[in-house]
Design a protein that fits this description.
The chain is α+β, with helices and mostly antiparallel strands. The chain has five domains: 13-129, Sandwich (Jelly Rolls), CATH 2.60.120; 140-260, Jelly Rolls; 270-388, Sandwich (Jelly Rolls); 399-514, Jelly Rolls (Sandwich); 528-690, no CATH class. It is built from ten helices and 36 strands. It has a five-stranded mixed β-sheet, with no helix packed on it. A five-stranded mixed β-sheet has the order 10-12-17-14-15. A five-stranded mixed β-sheet has the order 19-21-26-23-24. A hairpin with a 7-residue loop joins β5 and β6 (85-93). α5 (528-539) packs across α10, α6 runs parallel beside α10 and α8 crosses α9 (644-655).
Length: 691
């Protein structure tokens, strides 16, 4: 019984009672007229009747409303007994301006009732807005067809006004809509639908849209790329569709339709990724455009990606995925990326090292994906791929693969995310002494030290206390680190550089030293500048003049230079044929045979090597360039004393950071080479060859 009573009360809220038992008591207001009305009691109702033409906006202006009055307003289409309420709003107070657009000519009824009663009269003024020429396109089935480069006029002349347009677009085209002449007080929304989404749907609000943007004001340039050929519908409506909204305007404005299409636009999905071997071109021709590339990289290689010819003003994102993981997940949103960089501008060179051989996917897209973004272009962008070759220690990316540091070793950080692990033993002193030398200019790195037993117990650096850390090291440096006890310690070295830092010499090797170990030699004429190089020479089997003298500052003879070079290169001295030189001492015959067989020298004549003469820096440059197969980078030499015969060799040495000459403008080509300088040349050349 209570349910029946409640239903009756709810029905009474929508159907006229009392004075409106005779519905012709409703007061008719003509367009432009003002009616004075007022409530006599809390249960009183006021009925007004207005006649409206098709597609007009019905405007009601409530003024001089009593201060304490709170009222509700309902709008009916035709006879109120049918109960067809078009719109209604509760709890109005004070003056209000209401607007509603009708889709057919006829009589419409307005019901007002008090929510909180207050006596007193107020005014209701009725006016209308004129429809524009396109007002029939309020439903998608009457959408106006926009041809490419065509401009149409529209208005949104009431809060509930809607205008529909239809465009035909080819696969991978960008839909461009240019809104101009937009009234200052208009707020509007733009929504894009595929034709298939609207078919069979009575209410477009129940259909799935492709993209929607709300609360636009002023002129806008709107863009969205579609992935298949077909018809697309554009709905434009007022930002606030409440009938008391003031976001509409009776002033017309323009919509112009154009399209964009770019190169390589079929690779919008990772399953369509273009295989990148060395070079590809692409465009980002819409804010929602995406280009995918697929590359094959070997274990421990660092991929180097150069994005060139980027249009001015474009901001783009770069994301890298493990191919195996992405293919397994089937959706980029469901897999963790390896690295990502946002808001890149202009030309960029990006590096990233991978730890396993396989396929990797690259996604490039505009940073601002909103439809009103201007960060897109039909200009062609170039993507270049190269790889950094790993050095001898590139496998030490995990503490379990740490390189045992005995004296000194070669290392490099060949990408921004590269790490190197080393292991050292502290025997008696509770101090660990580390040194870094030959650090390339532009490299910035951090050093972490862990207690070996703790790291091996927990098997995770994140769970172990760091004994020592130092950040942003960018030069040769020695450290003395207090450690709790003797034993094994792990050293982690990481890059502090960013993925897009292009000036970093990623492929240049440098050295790490365990300074707890005594020097390998007891030479008294070896300054700190030469110590690493002389230790290296001794490690390769070369000797000094005596147990205490290396002869660092002495000129080096051709015969001694030949022996040192052959030992460092590790040439086969047993199977090389006789050189034919008749002036070579017995201790050097096999070495010079190997040097000639390798094509490094042909001697002074067919029968003389000139063994006992001092060798010049220019001659050594030729030997080193040939022996280590060093390549020049074709940059012009600043040296003025390099003859054509030596130019290629000297360029190669400078390009590989083997030497910087004797001054800014001289290499010292005809100067005799010193034993200490030659040792440095050979150490640096070996490091370059290792890379």
């Amino acid at each position: 019984m209570r349910l029946v009573v409640l239903l009756l009360f709810s029905m009474l809220a929508f159907f006229p009672t009392g004075a409106f038992a005779d519905d012709f008591d409703a007061q008719t207001i003509l367009e432009g007229d003002t009616e004075v009305v007022g409530f006599e009691s809390a249960s009183d109702m006021i009925w007004l009747k207005v006649d409206v033409d098709e597609d007009q906006g019905l405007l009601l202006d409530f003024t001089d409303v009593p201060r304490d009055l709170v009222y509700n307003v309902y709008l009916y289409d035709g006879n109120p007994y049918d109960g067809h309420i078009l719109t209604y709003d509760y709890y109005f107070s004070g003056n209000q301006f209401l607007a509603y657009k009708v889709d057919h000519a006829g009589s419409y009824y307005v019901k007002m009732e008090p929510e909180e009663f207050a006596s007193g009269e107020f005014d209701v003024t009725y006016t209308t807005t004129e429809p524009d020429q396109n007002e029939p396109n309020d439903v998608y089935t009457k959408a106006i067809v926009l041809d490419e480069n065509e401009t149409e006029t529209l208005t949104l002349n009431a809060p509930n006004d809607v205008d529909w347009f239809k465009v035909q677009v080819e696969q991978d085209q960008g839909i461009l809509l240019d809104f101009t002449g937009v009234p200052d007080d208009l707020v509007y929304n733009v929504t894009l639908f595929e034709e298939e989404a609207l078919q069979g749907v009575e209410d477009p609000d129940d259909a799935e849209y492709l993209v929607s943007d709300y609360y636009f004001t002023g002129n806008q340039f709107w863009n969205h790329k579609v992935l298949k050929t077909g018809a697309y519908y554009i709905r434009i409506d007022v930002g606030d569709d409440n009938w008391y909204s003031e976001d509409y305007s009776t002033e017309p404005f323009n919509i112009k339709f154009t399209t964009s299409i770019g190169e390589g636009d079929q690779n919008d999905d990772y399953t369509q990724a273009l295989e990148l071997k060395t070079k590809e071109t692409f465009t980002l021709n819409s804010p929602n455009d995406i280009d995918w590339f697929k590359i094959q990289v070997n274990q421990d290689q660092a991929m180097v990606l150069n994005v060139a010819d980027v249009p001015n003003g474009m901001e783009y994102d770069f994301t890298l995925y493990d191919g195996k993981e992405l293919e397994k997940a089937g959706d980029p949103e469901r897999v963790q990326y390896l690295t990502t960089e946002y808001y890149l501008t202009g030309e960029q060179t990006l590096t990233h090292k991978v730890l396993k051989t396989g396929t990797y996917y690259i996604k490039i897209n505009p940073s601002d994906e909103s439809t009103y973004s201007t960060s897109f272009s039909t200009e062609v962008i170039t993507l270049n791929l190269t790889t950094n070759t790993p050095d001898a220690n590139e496998q030490n990316d995990s503490y379990k693969q740490a390189t045992l540091l005995e004296g000194q070793d070669t290392m490099s950080l060949n990408a921004w995310n590269d790490i190197d692990w080393f292991k050292v033993a502290v025997e008696k002193e509770k101090q660990l002494k580390l040194g870094f030398s030959e650090v390339p200019a532009g490299v910035s790195f951090s050093v972490y030290v862990y207690k070996g037993s703790e790291l091996e117990k927990f098997e995770d650096p994140e769970r172990v206390e760091v004994i020592f850390r130092e950040y942003y090291i960018d030069e040769d440096m020695d450290f003395t680190i207090d450690v709790p006890e003797s034993g094994e310690y792990y050293i982690l070295i990481t890059s502090d550089n960013e993925i897009y830092e292009t000036t970093v010499p990623w492929t240049t090797a440098w050295r790490i030293k365990d300074l707890n170990k005594a020097p390998m030699t007891n030479f008294t004429d070896v300054a700190a500048k030469y110590q690493d190089a002389v230790d290296f020479m001794v490690l390769k089997g070369n000797q000094g003049f005596s147990e205490t003298l290396f002869g660092t500052y002495d000129n080096i003879k051709r015969v001694d230079a030949a022996i040192m070079l052959v030992r460092v290169l590790g040439l086969d001295i047993e199977s090389a044929p006789d050189s034919g030189f008749t002036d070579v001492p017995g201790r050097a015959v096999k070495y010079i045979n190997a040097l000639k067989q390798a094509g490094i020298t042909s001697g002074k004549t067919a029968t003389t090597f000139d063994s006992q003469s001092s060798i010049t820096r220019g001659e050594l440059a030729i030997w080193i360039q040939r022996g280590f197969d060093l390549q020049a980078n074709n940059k012009a030499l600043a040296f003025t004393d390099v003859a054509d015969r030596y130019k290629e060799a000297v360029e190669a040495l400078v390009s590989n950071s083997i030497t910087s000459g004797t001054s800014q403008t001289t290499f010292g080509t005809t100067d005799f080479a010193k034993r200490g300088d030659y040792a440095i040349f050979l150490l640096r050349s070996d490091m370059a060859m290792t890379k």
